[in-house]
Design goal:
two-stranded parallel ribbon; 6 strands; alpha/beta
């Protein structure tokens, strides 16, 4: 039996006010009902989820505010409860806000490429190759050097490992994606990340992973664009 929960973001919870306690209590009832249906004890769940029994108890009592999200997710996985996080802000303005930041990064990158000599570029380049589909935020080419550059833009660095895997796929497919438009000899990949406190913390927390994938410092991008 699979149960699906949609958990609203913190911003919406604050707007709802006292409704948060009601919602947390309902979530707790769902967890308990599923556990009882599966004929499992709280100790059974805690051992399988790798969390203290008190965590299971607090979830079932609706004390979600005292727990880490990862603990709730671990218990949910044991119970086959799917948790969907659905952030909301000011009644629908969140997508516009996120897209606005992403668009601003696009404009900034386009300006840098436009001021660098010899570069041609295209935005939102879609592809479908060997069953793999996606969109490259910006693809650029320097004819004089035969250099193809892939730029992945992230307003929110929420999944560093996913970013590395995504860009590695682009690196592999880029020559085929560009074929018919540009013929490249070399591919270089860059990640353009919004300069926010949250992203800085994530960059620091995943420094080894990201430095392995992106060894060049972003501060050197301007020099590299002038002499790729």
């Amino acid at each position: 039996m699979r149960v699906r929960l949609a958990i609203v973001g913190e911003s919406q919870v604050r707007v709802l006010g006292h409704a948060r306690l009601v919602y947390d209590s309902q979530v707790g009832l769902v967890f308990r009902a599923v556990r009882v249906h599966l004929r499992l004890r709280q100790d059974d769940i805690s051992q399988r989820a790798g969390v203290p029994q008190s965590v299971v108890s607090r979830i079932e009592r609706g004390h979600l505010a005292t727990l880490r999200l990862g603990q709730v997710q671990a218990v949910a996985a044991v119970l086959e409860i799917r948790i969907d996080l659905v952030p909301s802000w000011r009644g629908g303005d969140l997508p516009r806000l996120v897209n606005a930041r992403h668009s601003a990064l696009h404009e900034c990158l386009a300006d840098r490429l436009g001021r660098a000599p010899g570069w041609e570029s295209a935005a939102e380049v879609s592809y479908s190759i060997w069953g793999e589909r996606g969109v490259i935020d910006r693809l650029a080419f320097h004819p004089g050097r035969g250099m193809l550059a892939v730029f992945e833009i992230k307003a929110d660095l929420s999944d560093p490992a996913g970013l590395v895997g995504q860009v590695d796929r682009y690196r592999r497919l880029a020559p085929e994606i560009a074929r018919g438009r540009w013929d490249s000899a070399t591919v270089s990949c860059w990640a353009v990340v919004a300069d926010t406190d949250t992203n800085r913390r994530r960059l620091a927390a995943h420094r080894e992973l990201l430095r392995g994938a992106f060894p060049a410092d972003g501060r050197g991008l301007g020099e590299w664009l002038r002499d790729p």
